[in-house]
Amino acid sequence: MVTDVEQKIYEIAGFVFGISPSALDLNSSTETLKNWDSAKHIDFILALEDEFKIEFDEEKVLEMLSLELVLKAVKELKT
Predict the structure, then answer these.
(1) How far is CA 76 from the centre of its chain?
(2) CA-to-CA distance for 72 and 43, rounded, in angstroms?
(3) What is the four-CA torsion angle of 3, 6, 10, 12, rounded to 10 degrees?
(4) Mind listing the pLDDT tens digit for each residue in 43-56?
(5) Most CB atoms within 10 A, among 31, 32, 34, 64?
């Protein structure tokens, strides 16, 4: 079952990367999404920070290269 946080991440990723959120899953990554380049990565991070009212450190931003890792990072900062 998809959690509310996970669904919101899919919605944000879909908007930023120009893909339907329903086409995304936790395995979606920089390797599987052609539109997930360095510029879009920054847009994605900023959108996540704005939506969830959190702030990622630089090291974490560089590690968040899949939606699974994004979800984990968001959950860590929201708790």
Answers:
(1) 14
(2) 19
(3) 120
(4) 999 999 999 999 99
(5) 64
